[in-house]
Amino acid sequence: MSTKSAFRIDVFSIFPKLVDDFCNESLLGRARSESIVDLRCHDLRDYGDESRRIDDALYGGGAGMLFRPEPVFAAVEAVQPQRPLFLLSPGGRRFDQGFADQLSKTQGFSLLCGRYEGVDHRVVEHLIDGEISIGDVVLSGGEVAACLIIEATARLLPGAMGNEASPVSESFGVSRMLEEPHYTRPAEFRGWEVPEVLRSGDHAKIERWRRAQALHRTVRSRPDLIERRGGLSSVEKRLLEEFPCVPYPERPL
Ligand code: SAH
Questions:
Q1: Which of 44, 88, 147 to mutate to test the pocket of ligand 1 (most atoms within 8 A of CB)?
Q2: Element spanning 89, H or E
Q3: From the CB of 244, is ligand 1 less than 6 Å away?
C-alpha cells in the first residue's frame, strides 16, 4: 500500500473560485481527482469583518487599498497551510522552469494572492516565507499568477502527466533550450509540406534535424539562453549548417 501523501497546495484569495475552477479542468483536474494534488482554495473574506471586508486605506495617503493584516493572519492561522507560504508580488523572485522544478520536489507550498495595492507589509515581514513574481508585468491580482505556478509545478509531479517523458524534452528542459517545431498529419496541407527528413524513417538524421531546429529556434528567439550555457559547441555549429532553419513569421515588434 502506498503511504505517499498528495502534494498539498493552499491558496488564499478574495476570488478563490477563479483558481479552483481553473484547476478543475484538464490535467490538473485529473491530478486533483486522482489525489496527486490536494489543492485547497480559501476565501480571505471569511476572515474579514462583519461585512466581509478585508481592505483599508494606505497610511501616509495615496491611492488604492491594502489587505489589512488581521484577516490575512487569521486565515493562515486557522488553515495552517502547507509551508512554504509565498506572497504573489511583482517584487518577488522571478518564477521560471527551474523554480517549478524545485517546488515539484517538495511536499507542497501555499500562495497568497494580493489585490488592490497589495498587502500590509507586516504580512510580508512576519507571516510569509517568500515572494514570487511571474514576470515584469503588473496584474490586478495574484490569481492568474497562482494558476500559472500551480500548473507549471503540478505537471512535473510523478503521475500527473500521461507521458512522463514529456517534461524532460520540452522547452527549458534539461537541455536549457527551446523545443524544435513539430508536425502531424496531413503530410501536405494547402501545399505546405512536412519536412522531408521527418518522413524519411532515418532516426539518426531525424534526431540531428530536431537538435538543429531546437538550436536554430533558440539562437533566433532566445540568444540569452545560448549565452548562459556558454555558446555553441563545434558539433552544434556544424548541425546548424547541415540543416537550415524552418521558416518563422517575421516579428512585427
Ligand atoms: N502595487 C503593487 C502592485 C499590486 S497588483 C506594485 O506596484 O508592486 C495587485 C496584486 O496582484 C499583487 O498584490 C500581487 O498579488 C498580484 N500581482 C501583480 N503583478 C504580479 C506579478 N508580476 N507576479 C505575481 N503577482 C502579481
A1: 88
A2: strand 85-94
A3: no
User: Do 126 and 49 lie in a common domain?
Assistant: yes
Protein residue closest via CA to atom 15 of ligand 1: 114
Both 148 and 231 in a single domain? no
The structure's pTM equals 0.94
Residues 6 or more apart from 148 whose CB is under 8 A from it? Answer: 95, 134
Residue 251 lies in a domain: no
Residue stretches of the chain with pLDDT short of 70: 1-4, 163-168, 252-253
Three-state DSSP state, 153: helix
**β-bridge mates for residue 158, sequence order:** none
Same domain, 235 and 148: no
Structural domain that includes position 36 = 7-154
- With residue 212 as reference, give the H or E element that holds it: helix 203-221
